[in-house]
Amino acid sequence: MENTLPEPFRELERFVPSWALAAQNDREAQRRHSTRDDRQAFYDAMAPRLPAIIEYLDRHALDALPADAQRLMRLALAAAEIAPTVELYKGSATVPFSFEETRFIAVHGDRKD
Amino acid sequence: MSDARNENGMNERVRWARAFPELGTAPIPTDRCLAPEYFALERDKIFKRVWLKVGRVEELPQPRDYKVKRLEFANTSIILVRGEDGEIRGFHNICSHRGNKVVWGDDTYGLRGTTRGKSFACHFHGWVYGLKGDLIGVPQEELFFGLDKCQNGLVPVATDTWEGFIFINLDPAPQQTLREFVGEHADRLGGFPFSEMTAVYDYYTILNCNWKIAWDAFSEAYHVSTVHGGSFPGVFEAEVKQVGMYGIHHSGAAHQKPSPPSTPIAALTYQLATASIAKPGFRSSLPPRINPNRDADFAFDQSAIFPNFLVHVTEGLYFTHQFWPLSGNKTLWEGIQYFMPARNAGERFSQEFGQVLQRNAWLEDTATMEATQAALASGVKKFFHFQDGEVMLRHNYQVIDEFIARP
């Protein structure tokens, strides 16, 4: 597998194709379309590494992240997107007792991180 | 639960009914959300006569930047444009020639752009309007009959700004200035750094319910332990604090339990966050009248600007809700979160966490509205019963009735 993440985080490489997404709309769709096991595996891999990830990323200016760090940032943002499903919603892909999510239009949703 | 009664026979925990006796305690008729005639009166006597927020100045940073906003209840669309002189002006989006729409596109939520030259041109026959609405060009002008260009500009709409919020008033002769209309909120919120919070996350949807069903759902804290049991379990207190009444407007405050979350990612974002809806603290830079006692468990202040705009402020962020009636049982809801721009990855990560969690909470809030409207439509229930903590809803209904009673 090609290494596209900063060296200390290479073990997360397998999550890059599915989760290193630039736009919030895409991260939100990936949450809804992924399986419970996919989300749990991603969560389990990311949660213990996030303090080190943030520490690593904070060495760079946020608006000038190198490409590999940018990918790592996107993984962190995807972890923020799925964290409530694991930590609050018992693994459910969507918010329990909620409005139909696809009817919520995010005006900012295609903005790239 | 205490059942002690005070001198009026009210439970001693009843607070706002005693503070605001003019609001009464009677049930509210549900036909306010059902009767088409009542909606027609709301439209004509309220929405067409008061100041309505339609944008932020940051949406039009440069001269020639414009925003077009559909106002369905008035069957119109408004062009807001920043002129070469820096002023933001508003016009009805309709050509003086044969009534064509001048700027096209989906303006349901708000269409933004920049004019190519210093003018708008109608696509139908090429009539050209300057950024001050003046008619400056008519192809084949010599073939018209006494056409006075000076009398045929775009129809202006009263437009003004307050704290960077752009408001319009469809009344050709507004009875109050925007500053008079905003009233005491200007003193309460003055000094809050709205203009610095330029990281914007905005949502909208169309809800099949009366606009007040949506507005009501965001006007009390009674629902938090049930509706937000998923996204904010045990986080917020189910009681409104610091209620203030300012004529047609009001405010209240939400408080929360100051214990940090225990799950790993939530706990990390809590530690990294400089601003989050889910985190109390750092309240020192708020204006003196917001969280006036500097309560450590303060969550956010909610200011209602009648008839359809809510502004919530707390340290480092603010968020707004707006409820646009499309018809008597259809509402365009807009919810926008504004943050200080993240300065590093940790802030960006925690902002994303807080922001999507709040989106999730809004998905919980909006979940009840269509079911409420559908059930009310049966006509089986004739009254809403508001408890003491639903005082802000009670105030809304009273103010609406007052407007409707006006000549």
Structural features:
heterodimer; A: 113 residues; 48% helix; 2% strand; B: 407 residues; alpha+beta; Rieske Iron-sulfur Protein; Naphthalene 1,2-dioxygenase Alpha Subunit, Chain A, domain 1; 23% helix; globular
Any overview of this molecule?
The complex is a heterodimer of chains A (113) and B (407). With 113 residues, chain A is mainly α. Chain A has helices spanning 16-19, 24-33, 36-46, 50-57, 67-87, and one strand spanning 105-106. Chain A is globular. Chain B is α+β, with helices and mostly antiparallel strands and 407 residues long. Chain B is built from 10 helices and 19 strands. Chain B has helices at residues 16-19, 36-47, 178-182, 184-189, 211-217, 224-227, 264-272, 345-367, 369-376, 391-405, and strands at 28-29, 51-56, 65-71, 76-82, 88-92, 111-114, 119-121, 128-130, 135-137, 156-162, 165-169, 199-207, 241-246, 249-255, 298-305, 309-314, 317-327, 330-339, 383-384. A 7-stranded antiparallel sheet of chain B has the order 2-11-10-5-4-3-6. The radius of gyration of chain B is 23 Å and the shape is globular. The model of chain B has no long low-confidence stretch (mean pLDDT 93). Chain A binds chain B through residues 24, 28, 43, 46-48, 50-51, 54, 57-58, 60, 62, 65, 73, 76-77, 79-81, 83-84, 86-89, 95-99, 101, 103-108, 113, and chain B through 109, 200-206, 227, 230-231, 233, 261, 263-266, 268-269, 272, 342-346, 348-350, 352-353, 356-357, 359-360, 362-367, 369. Strand 1 of chain A pairs antiparallel with strand 12 of chain B.
Helices and strands in order:
The complex is a heterodimer of chains A (113) and B (407).
Chain A: H1 16-19, H2 24-33, H3 36-46, H4 50-57, H5 67-87, E1 105-106
Helix pairs in contact in A: 2-5, 3-5, 4-5
Chain B: H1 16-19, E1 28-29, H2 36-47, E2 51-56, E3 65-71, E4 76-82, E5 88-92, E6 111-114, E7 119-121, E8 128-130, E9 135-137, E10 156-162, E11 165-169, H3 178-182, H4 184-189, E12 199-207, H5 211-217, H6 224-227, E13 241-246, E14 249-255, H7 264-272, E15 298-305, E16 309-314, E17 317-327, E18 330-339, H8 345-367, H9 369-376, E19 383-384, H10 391-405
Antiparallel strand pairs in B: 1-19, 2-11, 3-4, 3-6, 4-5, 5-10, 7-8, 8-9, 10-11, 12-18, 13-14, 14-15, 15-16, 16-17, 17-18
